[in-house]
Amino acid sequence: MTSSALGRDFRLLWSASVSSRFGDSLRTPALALLAVTLTRDPRIIAAVTVAGQLPPLLFGLLGGVYADRWDRRRTMAVVDGVRAAVVAALAVAVVLDRAAVVTLLVAAFLLAALGTLFDSASFALLPTVVPPATLPRANGRLQAGSAVAGGFLGAPAAGVLFATAPALPFALDAVTFAVAALLVLALTPPPVGAAPAIRRGSVWSEIVEGMRWLRGHRTLWRVTLLAAACNLAISGLMAVLVLYALDVLRVPPAGYGLFAAGAILGGVVGALGAGRLAARLGTVPALRAVLAAQTVALVGFALARQPVPGGIALAVFAAGSVVWNSLSASYGQRHVPGGLLGRVGAAQRMVAVLTAPVGAALAGLAAAAYGTVPVAGAAAGTFALVTLAAWRTLRPVSPVPTAAAPTSDRTVARHPSR
User: Fold this and answer.
1) Could you give the CA distance from residue 176 to residue 146 in angstroms, rounded to a whole number?
2) Percentage of residues of the chain with pLDDT beyond 90
3) 203-396+405-418 CATH choice from 1.10.1740.10, 1.10.10.10, 1.20.1250.20, 2.30.40.10
């Protein structure tokens, strides 16, 4: 998956990302399982999940600022080192039977807060590791590796490890963070004096600068808004997916894991094909085509009443989601000036995920009142509208020779739209 053509530094970055993702996939379900051993109050158990979801909304933009201020390689290594210490402390607390609900809440919040800085730095670092033309393929390889490590390896192992010893998933997660930190430190450091001196303003002014840049780049801003609209539908569908699979598609409870694995496999296939699709169509046309394919897949999913056709449709949809993520990330990495990558990337992520809790809440209310079938239909309808909007508004921009930090995409596209 790592492809020697992408170089040594990419292999190190890929290995670090996959190691961290494997650890995440062990820790996340283990936190839920540990919470259940401490309390059966669904409000408290949900609070542990919420504690891990709030930091990206609260600190995402701040993480982007410091990802642009600090050396990104060292920032990622330090963050992973601190995360290793946090999870190791949690493992010790579990061994000593000192883990309380407050402990889980604090750990989940701290890890997610640190993750906002890591994600911003990682997003901004990749364009310095691989050539611009290979960014779609590089992002696809990262997505594929994360899907395999998280979906096929980590998630199934989490329950087994927790049953063996409740502290074991957390201890292994700490090891994966430590390994990832060492791998990132092994990346080739930037040449001394390579980064020009930049006059920094206040944190708030830098946040505003990143938001203003994103808002001023028409294509990137439209991609961000389209992603937010997609997340409204995706979050709603995921919120009721298990009920839809069991009640509408008649997936046997024992077969739900296999049903979910099909979607993960679709994501891996999509990730590995993202680079080829971008090379064949160009990135912006590929984004439009992906939305159209996902709409067709969702219509098929909403009409399916059997496990196999429903599972195939969901796998195709998942493949499209991963391709979209890979190509939209590559588009930003190629067009945003290096000194703004952390802030603009953080702003994109924050805007894109704002609709997710709204979608989940609406889906829950709709499913309670009308059943899960209308939720799937609404998701398909939303994607149809997003696809129409994309075909009307997304257009490749012509490259112009400039390296300045611009305010519109006429002065941004230093490379042809992929």
Assistant:
1) 13
2) 60
3) 1.20.1250.20
CA distances (Å), origin 391, targets 69, 82, 283? 37, 44, 13
Say if domain 1-132+152-187 classifies as CATH 1.20.1250: yes
CA dihedral 114, 116, 120, 126 (to 10 degrees): 70
**Alpha carbons 111 and 114: distance in angstroms, whole number:** 5
CA dihedral defined by 395, 396, 398, 400, rounded to 10 degrees?
Answer: 110
For 381-418, the pLDDT digits (tens) are 999 999 999 999 987 654 433 333 333 333 233 333 33
pLDDT at 196: 46
Alpha carbons 65 and 242: distance in angstroms, whole number: 38
Of residues 408 and 90, which shows the higher confidence score? Answer: 90
The pLDDT of residue 410: 31
Q: Quick one: tokens of 301?
A: 């999913």
